[in-house]
Amino acid sequence: MTFSTELEAKFARLLASYPPGRQRSAMIPMLMFAQDELGCVSAELVNEVARRIGVTPVQVEEVLTYYSMLHRKPLGKAHVQVCTNISCLLTGGAELWEQACSRLGIGHKEVLPDGSISLEEVECIGACSWAPAIQVNYQFHHFVTPEKLDRLLASLRNENPHAV
């Protein structure tokens, strides 16, 4: 499998940071870095990561099925995660989720036909003190109101995810 020079360098640094026999600890970061470059975790990627860290593909699959931030299908250019765990739920997270579904016309783990936005309901993004919270790719949005969500979604449709 062929990766960019930058990703190969990340893999090399990552694997070198673990002592011999402990390279399997690099599995999750390797999958995340590769997913960022490739768009999703393919069967070919599973086999490649398994080979590089010295485990079986089944062991990589076990990790892949456990972690919700690893995806088998490509995400949108902007991946919107709406938290509906207890803190966010009590401060309007469920309503924001419904609003996002309605505005975008897609549901959980779905992608707009043009590939610009994907949507996911998540249990927790670790922003309970700033609830309700939304994450777009790796950017957090705290104390999200229905108005702020509308502005955020509009900016994402205009390919300007940092406008809000």
- Percent helix among the residues? 40-55%
N-to-C terminal Cα separation, in Å? 38 Å
How would you write the strand order of the largest sheet?
Answer: 2-3-1-4-5
Number of helices: 7
CATH superfamily of the largest domain: Glutaredoxin
Uncertain stretches of 5 or more adjacent residues:
none
Percentage of residues in DSSP E strands: 5-15%
Say how many strands there are: 5
User: Number of domains in the coordinates?
Assistant: 2
Overall form: elongated
The CATH topology of the largest domain, please? Answer: Glutaredoxin
Query: Mean pLDDT, as a whole number?
Result: 94
The top-level CATH class of the largest domain is: Alpha Beta
How would you explain this protein's 3D organization?
This protein is an alpha+beta fold and 164 residues long. The protein has two domains: 62 residues, NADH-quinone oxidoreductase subunit E (Arc Repressor Mutant, subunit A); 80 residues, Glutaredoxin (3-Layer(aba) Sandwich). The protein is built from seven helices and five strands, in the order ααααβααββββα. A five-stranded mixed beta sheet has the order 2-3-1-4-5, covered by helices on one side. The longest helix is centred in the N-terminal third of the chain and has 12 residues. The relative contact order is 0.11.
In short:
With 164 residues, this protein is α+β, with helices and mostly antiparallel strands.
Topology record:
Layout: H1 5-16, H2 27-38, H3 43-53, H4 57-66, E1 78-83, H5 86-90, H6 93-104, E2 110-111, E3 117-122, E4 134-136, E5 139-141, H7 146-157
Parallel strand pairs: 1-3
Antiparallel strand pairs: 1-4, 2-3, 4-5
